[in-house]
């Protein structure tokens, strides 16, 4: 019988992404144990308004999901705690903080403080929250290295589609001169629906219902989310030191249905394109709505699907396409970091 390693997770945030992870553990927990020898237990779930629960022997993912589906909260489950996330990080018997609270691109808080506290308390950290990684990556990396702990943030760019891992690991040894693509699922979904005749407001409401949009969708439609991802790509994969204010940014709110339909009538598509490139000794980044001819490789990338093309010195262009948003895809990103930690790092 292969050795089993147990990972006890504290989840901060149980929205679309947290529930996606719980679904994966509900449906694949046994398979993960057999296939990889990992026993992944959620021991604590902390939310802002929907309750906080703790069981040192593991909470049942199905019960967590049923409670949210039926009651809209966790307040009727056993294991209630009057805990803040800080209390959970201090008091729960756990190995990993999974930080999935709301992204705040102005301060990175409160997520960054949760992450710092977790690292100080000897917990590994996995997050899909773009605030801490776009704003405080250097500090988080340093704290994790000093404490000899894992920090994973694959889900911050293209959710479960491994854009960062592709650049960092699979393309290691190549020099990257440019990265460009569609890195926000919500806006790509909205643009695709508007091409079919749906109104902007209905398309946005649908993107929210499907769990693609940020809690404040201004972050999506005004291009801040894509700009944060451009910063993360630049800083992680090109060793840059960009801030959000360095990104030339324009969202999709200037595009009307008429503009989009007119482009479609002539075979073109509007896409929100993020671009990061080397220029002289500097790294630059932009996010702009761009009209693409139908023949362009990104023109047919539709819905919440994302795509990124890495321009490399040895392979030329390498393109990765896959889901860019959604609970299950983001839950998978967390799982992929956990398995990386298990397979390459923590053993
Ligand atoms: N959804 C997606 O497709 C993707 C999301 N991400 C990122 O993952 C994170 C989670 O996204 P998602 O699940 O969609 O977001 P949701 O808005 O669906 O859920 C956010 C969760 O965080 C909780 N929360 C917010 N603030 C606090 C706080 N101070 N303390 C404790 N809990 C808090 C909320 O509590 P309550 O339930 O009480 O409101 C809620 O449970 C975000 O940072 C997002 O940017 C990254 C990639 C893709
Ligand atoms: N709101 C984001 C979620 C993933 O990062 C998006 O739509 O891409």
Automatic annotation (TrEMBL):
Pathway as given in its UniProt record: Amino-acid biosynthesis; L-threonine biosynthesis; L-threonine from L-aspartate: step 3/5; Amino-acid biosynthesis; L-methionine biosynthesis via de novo pathway; L-homoserine from L-aspartate: step 3/3
Coiled coil recorded as keyword: no
Annotated L-homoserine binding sites: 214
Catalysed reaction equations from the record: L-homoserine + NADP(+) = L-aspartate 4-semialdehyde + NADPH + H(+)
Enzyme Commission number(s) of this protein: 1.1.1.3
Entry's Gene Ontology molecular function annotations: homoserine dehydrogenase activity; NADP binding
Binding site for NADPH: 130
Family of the protein in this entry: Belongs to the homoserine dehydrogenase family.
Keyword Amino-acid biosynthesis: yes
Highest rank taxon of the organism: Bacteria
Pfam families according to UniProt: Homoserine_dh, NAD_binding_3
Active site: 229 (proton donor)
Protein name: Homoserine dehydrogenase
Annotated NCBIfam families: PRK06270.1, PRK06349.1
Gene3D superfamilies recorded: Dihydrodipicolinate Reductase, domain 2 (3.30.360.10), NAD(P)-binding Rossmann-like Domain (3.40.50.720)
Organism: Kouleothrix aurantiaca
